[in-house]
């Protein structure tokens, strides 16, 4: 059997990490791309061949495809959402949107049999008219991030229909892990719980504690994306747990893990405050459950506990801990 080879863009992110581990276990050759090799320290030691690729450079990608001859490509590279995205709408449009057209063109011109998976987002739904959201829910993005991701999402469908590519989009609801940074609320809360427990911090200022999200575990979601590329037909899928939780519940679980009551330490503040979503984001992943036989294995509390434990372990390995 020929060796399967996958390219993962955005290899330094949490999804890049979990997917690369899954693929390496299955005997794939894994090439990870990043815009800055300095951010990829350590990844080369875990069996991934990390290369630099500027997502604006279509010719460089075509050359890479001709050299490494991948059978699958997963596109995880993107600007993150969050308040900063309003400062960089053009850059977001280019990287989160146009770059996907560049990848599809490179596939079409070099080897149309390469299977392609795009990391789409529940931000496509924006202000949804129904809850939970499924593949047929109308897309109403309300941010530069969501608008750019919608362009990419539609281009994947267009290349599938027009050019017959095996190109699919995973409509990913929030998914987290110990590799999530503190710019995201789960990472911020897990880090703060560990810091407060060990005396490194005294309080945590968050945005809206009543905001709700459907939070899953990154490792589960990359497995689903791999299944999407092994399926007999190319199709898009919502990946979600179906359970929505508030930021308040997130704090409750995380602080309980370290034996504390979050109500004594957590406050709402203006800086991280975003307007409350009118309809809470919660995904209906029935299609993935039925057709891919996929189900998330890690539930909300286990994932939050895992993140807090990882933060405690990180502190344990550093010298500045006052414990
Ligand atoms: N980041 C952050 N969010 C906070 C805070 N306090 C409350 N929140 C609320 O927590 C929720 C989750 O915010 P994030 O963790 O920043 O994630 P996100 O904006 O939902 O985006 C993530 O999920 C999307 C999929 O739905 C992804 O597309 C996106 O890239 C990212 O992974 C939002 O409702 C936000 O208002 C805070 O201090 N910081």
From TrEMBL:
Which enzyme class? lyase
What's its EC? 4.2.1.47
List, alphabetically, the SUPFAM superfamilies matched: NAD(P)-binding Rossmann-fold domains (SSF51735)
In its UniProt entry, what is this protein called? GDP-mannose 4,6-dehydratase
- Which keywords, in A-to-Z order, does the entry hold? Lyase
Q: Which domain of life is it from?
A: Bacteria
Q: Which family does it belong to?
A: Belongs to the NAD(P)-dependent epimerase/dehydratase family. GDP-mannose 4,6-dehydratase subfamily.
**Known Pfam families for this protein?**
GDP_Man_Dehyd (PF16363)
Q: Which InterPro entries match?
A: GDP_Man_deHydtase (IPR006368), NAD(P)-bd_dom (IPR016040), NAD(P)-bd_dom_sf (IPR036291)
Ion transport as a keyword of this entry, yes or no, is no
Residue intervals of the NAD(P)-binding domain: 7-307
Molecular function (GO) terms listed?
Answer: GDP-mannose 4,6-dehydratase activity
UniProt cofactor(s): NADP(+)
């Amino acid at each position: 059997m020929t060796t399967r080879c996958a390219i993962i863009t955005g290899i330094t992110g949490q999804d890049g990490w979990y997917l690369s581990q899954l693929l390496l276990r299955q005997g794939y050759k894994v090439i990870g791309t990043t815009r800055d090799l300095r951010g990829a320290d350590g990844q080369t030691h875990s069996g991934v061949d990390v290369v630099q690729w500027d997502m604006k450079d279509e010719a460089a990608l075509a050359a890479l495809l001709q050299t490494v001859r991948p059978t699958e490509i997963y596109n995880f590279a993107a600007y993150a959402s969050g308040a900063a995205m309003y400062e960089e709408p053009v850059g977001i449009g280019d990287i989160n949107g146009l770059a996907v057209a560049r990848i599809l063109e490179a596939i079409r011109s070099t080897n149309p049999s390469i299977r392609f998976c795009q990391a789409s987002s529940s931000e496509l739904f924006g202000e949804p008219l129904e809850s939970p959201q499924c593949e047929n829910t109308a897309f109403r993005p309300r941010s530069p991030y969501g608008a750019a991701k919608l362009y990419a999402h539609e281009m994947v469908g267009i290349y599938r229909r027009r050019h017959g590519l095996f190109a699919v989009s995973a409509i990913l609801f929030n998914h987290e892990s110990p590799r999530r940074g503190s710019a995201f609320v789960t990472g911020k809360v897990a880090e703060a719980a560990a810091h407060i427990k060990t005396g490194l911090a005294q309080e945590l200022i968050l945005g809206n504690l009543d905001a709700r999200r459907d939070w899953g575990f990154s490792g589960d979601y990359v497995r689903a994306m791999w299944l999407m590329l092994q399926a007999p037909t190319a199709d898009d899928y919502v990946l979600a747990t179906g359970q929505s939780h508030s930021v308040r519940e997130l704090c409750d679980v995380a602080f309980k893990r370290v034996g504390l009551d979050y109500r004594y330490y957590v406050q709402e503040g203006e800086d991280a405050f975003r307007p409350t979503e009118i309809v809470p984001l919660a995904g209906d992943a029935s299609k993935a459950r039925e057709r891919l036989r996929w189900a998330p294995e890690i539930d909300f509390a286990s994932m939050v506990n895992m993140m807090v434990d990882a933060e405690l372990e990180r502190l344990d390995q550093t010298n500045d801990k006052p414990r």
